[in-house]
Amino acid sequence: MSASESASPNSDVRMRGFAQRATVEEATAWIDSAVPAFESLPTTQVSLQDAAGRVLAVDIVSRVNVPAFARSMMDGFAVRGEETYGATPYNPLSLRIRGTCLPGTSFSGELAAGEVLRIMTGAPLPTGTDAVLPVEQSESDGLQVLVMGEVSAGKHVGQVGEDIRAGECILTAGRHLRPQDLGVLSSIGVSQVSVIRRPRVRILITGNELLPAGTPPEGYRIADANGPMLGALVLRDGGEAPTCDMIPDAPESIREALLSPADIILVSGGSSVGVEDHAPRLLAEEGELAVHGIAMRPSSPAGMGRLSNRLVFLLPGNPVSCLCAYDFFAGRAIRALSGRSTDWPYRQMRGVLVRKLVSTVGRVDYARVQIRGSEVDPLAISGASILSSTTRADGFVIVPADSEGYPPGAEVDVYLYG
Amino acid sequence: MSASESASPNSDVRMRGFAQRATVEEATAWIDSAVPAFESLPTTQVSLQDAAGRVLAVDIVSRVNVPAFARSMMDGFAVRGEETYGATPYNPLSLRIRGTCLPGTSFSGELAAGEVLRIMTGAPLPTGTDAVLPVEQSESDGLQVLVMGEVSAGKHVGQVGEDIRAGECILTAGRHLRPQDLGVLSSIGVSQVSVIRRPRVRILITGNELLPAGTPPEGYRIADANGPMLGALVLRDGGEAPTCDMIPDAPESIREALLSPADIILVSGGSSVGVEDHAPRLLAEEGELAVHGIAMRPSSPAGMGRLSNRLVFLLPGNPVSCLCAYDFFAGRAIRALSGRSTDWPYRQMRGVLVRKLVSTVGRVDYARVQIRGSEVDPLAISGASILSSTTRADGFVIVPADSEGYPPGAEVDVYLYG
């Protein structure tokens, strides 16, 4: 390919700067207004096995008591508590073993005075007994048991409904389901769970100079770095495994791709105001370009809007800008549409700057930093293009728009990658 | 089913307490000695798209420079910096626009003095120019550009190898791959990544009283809660999606299942010393029962060992004990075999107890707590069987074996669920 040598003075698409930039707060507020309320999010049914990490769409009320019957909490002997009174290791009492109660079984006979049943943890407490003598407080030859201690009525017995009562709400809508939640759901007989449907995300990679992801660079052509990165970010934030397509830098190709079915469309590249930046104009023509140009660094040439029921995010092609714009804006929308908290999914720590962190009043800065113990060291990087800065960094510090940055020794909050 | 009423005095399997309990530290040390070193873990190749969250098995050294050519960092004009000297908004200099440089293209002509090229972010810097004048510092009618500011040589130019140098190690073995790492790998032409193979885990659910997960309770039979919970925990800790089978409480069934192929076998239930607790004896017969009985609450009837190349964890059937024993022991082994840190994957916070937290010297306690702001409230629960305690809890506090617990007002570390 060679560059065009013609330059038409009548070209209707000219390079220009952004007339006005939105603040990060304005952009964020627009997203929050554009995402449906939790109650309106689409839902789906998944099996219990697939429910981990999903977001519950409804309150779960138990129809059953757990346990549904009084049960032994220990391995030992089901006894009448009063028949153990006075027993000590020095003065053991002898009782007759009538049989064994296993979990899942019931004892159908009637116990005479002085009789006990061997019982296993989880087995239903047999009629006529009211306590469990732990095996550790006994000695037995298989026919008789020597009781070495007292147990009062109810001791080591799990009562009906002690864990969960019928009619009780055990998990509420919006819950991000944990492994143990699946255990609780299983134990009340729930095998299908209503969860928030994962948002369907389409990633559109634009840039005629790009080779498919993972291709060695070739002349002036470079491999797409944003597709694999965005794909992993979307999954992290609760989206369905996204489709990712490379789209030629031609208005008709981009228009068609923008109109394809999706909940969220991420356009990587061509988000700015250059002659080849078609996406903002197309979004404005076909739908609404709500925000274009944001007072932040990197990612200032980011934009967003909607096209009928799709939210569209215009992410700079530059990988660091792309990551930053994703994290500030697109990720927020995907998390919200997944029913998750819009907060960043990064752990936070507080640390002390070892060097000055410079910023400019009027824009938010996303500064990559390294961490050593509680020391925070800003990476000395100029441009937004240094993708390796995000792999060398342990995290980032946000410098708000009203700040000129921080001096050495200042305490800062760090968001930790990975 | 009904309980057996016979009790043979000659039965060779008797109920008995644990003769001696291992400490949590001893059990943990055994796991660490039983898991192969990182360097010996089996590896596999995955595509870049599937590499997020996987653990890198090898160092990655770049074969290429990124960028491989000097490129523009801005939309603007490729210029000779010296031709802009003296330009200000009040004293603009006029230069002639010769054409346009787009990303992926090269300019083949030769620029005369006073000529510039329109250039887009990412485009290679054309021969004969050494700087980029940002569009924001210019005005243009399409033929001429008015230069409103100076740019020195190198300004807004990304230099060869500025992001990544050929020969540089960009990611080291053991790295838990982040979304942006995939971007970096893509940009150096890596499409397949060598990662640690996910451990293959088999879950064996024992307990004749159990119904399949998610089944409503029926008489004295209850649904398996541990299978879905353990399945989700294994995935969380980097294991392959585990198989989960319900095994009859019969020695031959359990023996056969223990001998099936796996890296790790989790046996839920039958881990203690009761007549129906077959797994510990079978493990000792077929392999090594390294630890059986641990000084902790809950989970004291947990055990572990190995059977040729399988690590086997015996987890109490009681769901809270099962969760606790998984988190202390089995999860540690799965994380290590995944190449991950053995640390708990829980966020931590420090808080203040609002009530006494009682423990017993000589055992480690796993106390479920609720969090309100920085207040830590221990859940008032007696038994280990209250699975809902782990869903009502926000996290847990570990009370070490040498502690009697903590008074109200004490500062404690909380591990946060979810």
Which features does this protein show?
Molybdopterin biosynthesis moea protein, domain 2, homodimer, disordered N terminus, Molybdopterin biosynthesis moeA protein, domain 3, 7 helices
Question: Would you kindly provide a written description of the structure presented here, covering whatever features stand out?
Answer:
2 copies of one chain form a homodimer. The first copy, chain A, has 418 residues and is of the alpha/beta class. Chain A folds into 4 domains: 24-41 and 198-337, 3-Layer(aba) Sandwich (Molybdenum Cofactor Biosythetic Enzyme, Chain A), CATH 3.40.980.10; 43-66 and 162-196, Molybdopterin biosynthesis moea protein, domain 2 (Alpha-Beta Complex), CATH 3.90.105.10; 71-158, Molybdopterin biosynthesis moea protein, domain 3 (Molybdopterin biosynthesis moeA protein, domain 3, Beta Complex), CATH 2.170.190.11; 347-416, Beta-clip. Helices cover 17% and strands 29% of the residues of chain A. Chain A is built from 7 helices and 28 strands. Chain A has helices spanning 24-34, 179-187, 226-236, 251-258, 279-286, 319-337, 388-392; strands at residues 43-47, 60-61, 71-72, 76-79, 93-101, 115-119, 131-134, 138-140, 144-147, 157-158, 169-171, 192-196, 201-206, 210-211, 222-223, 243-247, 264-268, 288-292, 296-297, 303-307, 310-315, 347-353, 357-358, 364-372, 375-378, 395-399, 405-406, 411-416. In chain A, the strands form 8 sheets. A 6-stranded mixed sheet of chain A has the order 7-4-6-5-9-8, with no helix packed on it. In chain A, strand 8 (138-140) and strand 9 form a beta hairpin. In chain A, helix 1 (24-34) runs parallel beside helix 6. The first copy, chain A, starts with 23 loop residues before the first helix and ends with a strand. Mean pLDDT of chain A is 92; it is low at 1-15. Chains A and B meet through strand 5, helix 2, strand 15, helix 3 and helix 7 of A and strand 5, helix 2, strand 15, helix 3 and helix 7 of B.
